[in-house]
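Problem: given the chain below (357 residues), write out its structure.
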Amino acid sequence: MKIEMGESLFYSWLRHVKECLLVQNNWKVSPSWGLKGQSELDRMLTELKHDFENNYGHILFQASDLNQILKQGESDAIGISMQNGKSMHYAIDVAFHGKGLSYGSKEKTACKVIEKCIRNAFCLYGFFEAEEAEIIFAAPKIGRALLYLLIPAVDYLNTYFQNAGLKYTFRLIYGDAFFTEVIDPIRIVSEDVEDTAELFMRAYKLLDMFKQQSGQPGKTAAKGRGKKGKRSASIASASQNSAVAIPCATAYDALKVGQIARTMLKRMLGSGLVPEAELEAMQSSADSKTIFGLNYPLLSKTGGKHYYAAPIQINGEKYYLCDEWYAANKQQLIDWIKGHPEIEAYVYSLDAAQDEE
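Solution.
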């Protein structure tokens, strides 16, 4: 079975960044499935074909039969997450084209992308009966002329589905956003992922390891986590390469606040590099409220309710990290992380060296 790296990337992204409980690559319609709401979808298909031809000059779907159109397609990744008893559906197509996204002419390419988005949305509506969904087309590089055609088309899809009463969001992820919204967040949460099926993450760690061995700028080596001399050298190196060693602030936007606390914050605290004065403040309710917006001390030596069960070792002592994180705390947490760039760069660089060991 052929494995595409882009599909593996979004498999990991859906699992670990979007926290989807169910994820499948190369999802296709089965001919044995019944389609819900076919008359409504037929009407929407007719309207969309008419609107795109008249408003944008795009002639969509050579086939006219809805069932045939749906069976012709394949989603690179489908994911379903659950939050507070509500499901969120994701359907993603991804394209890795070295010279920029292209399926022929820019007009043909635009039509193909739009068709993929519409087909994915119809599948989520007709087979999953999804009430809320995000439909994504992703590519690292999309040329400006093609974006000139795609951006208005995606905006129109968002307006059309919203007017139809569906909470469906259509998105293009490309360029810098491809790295800040997808790759960097995966890198942040990847430390504990050892699943051999996640080929992109394993390949990414392998690349980091060889960058470090060859002396190229990138994620720096961090052997000797507990040896101050080597650790200080790693920090200095990470600081020099901070443009590539530290994820930009927007990379955290793709993560929930609890994910950031359980990964980057936990690793920064466990590095042993946070000053003692700050550790003392983190054990104070008043200081934790001021710095992080928490209602409890960030760190406790006893743990219990309001704290994660797994302790953190900090300078040889055991601490428990507060688990009372809410969206309102997120910016304060990010501000603290970005206010300690050398420690952030250091812990961000640990994975490659640990894999090498």
